[in-house]
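Fig. S4 source data, part A: sequence.
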Amino acid sequence: MFLRGNLIGLIVDAVDDRSARGIAAAISRMITAGTLPAGTRLPTVRDVARQLGVSPTTVSEAWRSLTRAGVLQTRGRSGTFVATVSSRQRLRYSQMGAVGAVAQDLSTGVPDHDLLPDLTDALKRIGDGRLTSSYLDAPVLPGLEEVLRARWPFAPSSLTVVDGALDALDRVIGVSVRFGDHVVVENPAFPPLLDLLQTVGATVIGVPVDKSGMSPEGLAAALASHPVVAVFLQPRAHNPTGVSMTAARASALAKIIESYPDVLVVEDDHAGDIASAPPVSLATPQTVHVASFSKSHGPDLRLAAVGGPAPVISAVADRRLLGPGWSSRLLQAVLLDLLTDPAAAAQVSDAREMYATRRAALLAALHARGVTATADDGINLWMAVDDQQMAMVALAAHGIAVAPGAPFCVTPLPSDHVRVTAGLVPTEVDDLADALAAAALLDSRGSGPRTRPHPRGWR
């Protein structure tokens, strides 16, 4: 254990930037290097501030940033300590899946395998192996880049291909977000995105979502109140609510961001071609758009395209050279074949219609049973419940798994929710709807379903 004077001296020596962000970054580096082991009690804010020659407010802000990131732990009057691994927050993503085997797992958020296009002919057509001739070829097949640019919702300065939408988000965050940076996301938001932002120590601000997308008033307030570096959103088939942003809403948000030319906009179009709504984008000069093909053409293709301002896309591509280098050109060729083959396009179109039919059937059945839910687009349904935990336990008793709503929430919503993968549900839904409704309307005392359900929104 450190003597107090020695520990303060180590901290002072490690800090080369005496802003709150710089102090937080220095402490984070010391923890990562093992200089500050788990369980170490840190000096008081006043002692550190005195030795660094800064105000206690500056050190307090650094401590708060580290606490939000799960790096430090406050124990009241006992002081502030380096958090142990067991005390750090579990990844939100790890809280979403089913526990154990269930007869009907609707927690996954994955597409129906039977609705994906058949890859057999595409694999035959590109199976001569000539795409693997050189490490020095362009990272994106020229033919695929041409097709992607023609599909893009705006003209991107630069474009590359990575290993799926989450890989894209991870890499864009890696080159654009630093410890303590403020970022705006939708509330609710996709849990893995929140995990990625937590990992880099970003300060996350949640903005409400309504039937047209992210709230303009909420975005304007967030940008006016904080030095925001990036805004993350899902323009179509928002996960979990299923909302697709309207063109009018995209225009309103873009107009607000015009006053903040340095703010990066990152759009995760994760549903791709199975979304019923047309492509939409804020299309600001600082917009990075991610187009994923996992749900529409196959998760194992592991492909998403990223396009936007050249400095960001070039930084992503350059960093990849130190790892995978490029995404498999064989898989890129398969995707190019699927995107240009009329038969494959027809299969994707049929899948889009089937997902819409399944969503509508389950949503109508739930509404008829007095349940509040949304499922406007994509493969997910967002259902309000009286008590999340009780609803999940009740459904598990019927062999049904759904995803809890809490991991999606930056800040709590007015009511509890669960996410149901409606895209995996056949159109004969009465039995499932009965089980979901019974679970949704259990009151928090466990006294059974409410006989007179009251509507509750998800905003």
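Fig. S4 source data, part B ends here. Confidence is low (pLDDT under 50) at residues 451-459.
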